[in-house]
Amino acid sequence: MLKKTLSAIALAALAVSAHAADVLKVAATTVPHAEILNFVKPQLKAQGVDLQVKEFSDYIQPNAAVEDKQLDANFFQHQPYLDSYNKDRKSSLVQVPNGKVHVEPFGAYSSKIKNVKDLKDGATVAIPNDPSNGGRALILLAKQGLIELKDPKSLTPTPLDVAKNPKKLKFRELEAPLLPRALADVDLALINTNYAIEAKLNPTKDALFIEGADSPYTNIVAARADRANDPRIAKLIQALHTPEVKKFIQDKYKGAVVPAF
To answer: Which of 83, 115, 134, 186 is an S-S bond match for 126, by CB 3.0 to 4.6 Å?
Structure first.
């Protein structure tokens, strides 16, 4: 009798363990990443994967939570940001196989002018304060002819790398989530699309200028190297790369988010 009881307990423990193994915890910023992940939850559930989406409002904690093994993967960043984060934090997170999902064209916004031609000399321009997105903002400004950079090929220039600044623009570096709130205090703000959408800005209508579809800043799914080939994550990538997800992105975001698969 005791032997049967122990066997039953062991089987129950294995069942619980198997169920726990099917849980996939993914960090994401709210818009559009968490929305896209929640869209694929039913498909993953049908495949035996319980996708649990943990939402964050910043760009540091989603990586830290994965690095610390609190979560399995994250979906919020592009490769240049991940490279910069790994370098600064001495971490080793990686893009998972076929992990590219979408591009969020980066835009410039203003509550004071309607056309970039009206940007005055000495204007204050707010940009993200992290190396990859700050560099991205400067590259976009350079493409508009507002500044020239010492190395046009660099993906991480800083204001110190501005070679020519004919309008004598003044750069204010801020945390990316704070940029929409700074619009009233600056002449121009370069804002990541996820934060622009959260602030009820329409990138395709409200941005004075915006990146093209050739942007190298494709948003990816990332994980620790030892989890990159996890079968649950592979199922997530398959779910994210379906025609249904492509249509969801196109219909919901109307050009503010562009599928990259």
So the answer is: 186
- Peptide linkage before 32 cis (omega within 30 of 0): yes
Task: Give pTM, 2 decimals.
Answer: 0.84
Q: Where are the alpha helices (DSSP H) in the chain?
A: 2-21, 35-46, 61-67, 79-89, 131-143, 193-198, 203-206, 231-240, 243-253
Residues 92 and 137 sit within 8 Å (Cβ to Cβ):
no
SS3 76: strand
The reported pLDDT for the residue numbered 213 is: 67
| CB count in 10 Å sphere of residue 114 | 8
What is the distance between the alpha carbons of residues 66 and 238, in angstroms, rounded to a whole number? 21
- Among residues 232, 243, 226, the alpha carbon closest in space to that of 93 is found at 226
Q: What is the pLDDT of residues 109-118, one digit of tens each?
A: 999 999 999 9
